């Protein structure tokens, strides 16, 4: 199922854990449905989290940063895998490079194209699972909450139904 060597982790199973964070937690709390989890290479969950901008009024709590903080201190990040339901924004891409996280697995990059090309250019293994469930989960949510979404991705929103 995975696309690399025989010992590659089961990325889809890992994505399922990030997805569980997104709708089951974030969405239930009225927040943005983006979830993430940081794994060891063997598939052990180190930390999991979800976007809590709305719930906590804190724009710095993205799925990835939440999962990263929950994982606590790790000796090395090279063998960790950041799994996120959506292409990581610049802020989270910066986190990946700052700490040397070796692999990023994303559920989709259709609703948002973040920094994953840049990560790839700098030697991070990037896997885009193009998961239809992730695409529709966030796509439907954006259609219903365009203003919150534009605030989340740091774009000015004139507010009048552009999209
Ligand atoms: Zn982010």
Describe the model:
By secondary structure, the protein is of the alpha/beta class. The protein has seven helices and five strands. It has a five-stranded mixed sheet. Strand 4 (103-106), helix 5 (116-121) and strand 5 form a beta-alpha-beta unit. Helix 6 packs across helix 7 (146-152). The longest helix is centred in the N-terminal third of the chain and has 17 residues, at 11-27. The structure holds zinc ion. Residues 62, 64, 88-89, 91-92 line the site of zinc ion. Zinc ion is lined by residues 62, 64, 88-89, 91-92.
Number of strands: 5
Q: What helical percentage do the residues reach? A: 25-40%
Q: What quaternary form is this?
A: single chain
Low-confidence parts? 157-163
What is the 3D shape? globular
Largest sheet: 5 strands, mixed
Average pLDDT across residues?
89
Assign the structural class, choosing from mainly alpha, mainly beta, alpha/beta, alpha+beta, or little secondary structure: alpha/beta
Q: For the CA atoms, what is the radius of gyration?
A: 15 Å
Taking the alpha carbons of the first and last residues, their distance comes to 36 Å
Cofactors and ligands: zinc ion
Strand order of the largest sheet: 2-1-3-4-5
Strand content: 15-25%
């Amino acid at each position: 199922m995975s696309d690399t060597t025989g010992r590659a982790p089961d990325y889809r199973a890992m994505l399922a854990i990030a997805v569980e964070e997104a709708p089951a937690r974030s969405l239930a709390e009225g927040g943005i449905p983006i979830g993430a989890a940081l794994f060891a290479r063997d598939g052990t969950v180190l930390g999991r989290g979800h976007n809590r901008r709305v719930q906590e009024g804190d724009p710095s709590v993205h799925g990835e940063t939440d999962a990263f903080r929950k994982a606590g201190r790790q000796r090395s990040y090279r063998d960790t895998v950041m799994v996120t339901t959506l292409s990581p924004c610049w802020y989270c891409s910066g986190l990946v490079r700052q700490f040397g996280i070796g692999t990023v697995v994303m559920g989709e990059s259709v609703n948002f194209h973040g920094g994953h090309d840049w990560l790839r250019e700098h030697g991070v293994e990037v896997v885009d699972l193009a998961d239809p469930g992730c695409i529709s989960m966030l796509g439907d949510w954006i259609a219903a909450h365009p203003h919150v979404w534009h605030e989340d991705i740091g774009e000015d929103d004139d507010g009048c139904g552009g999209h």
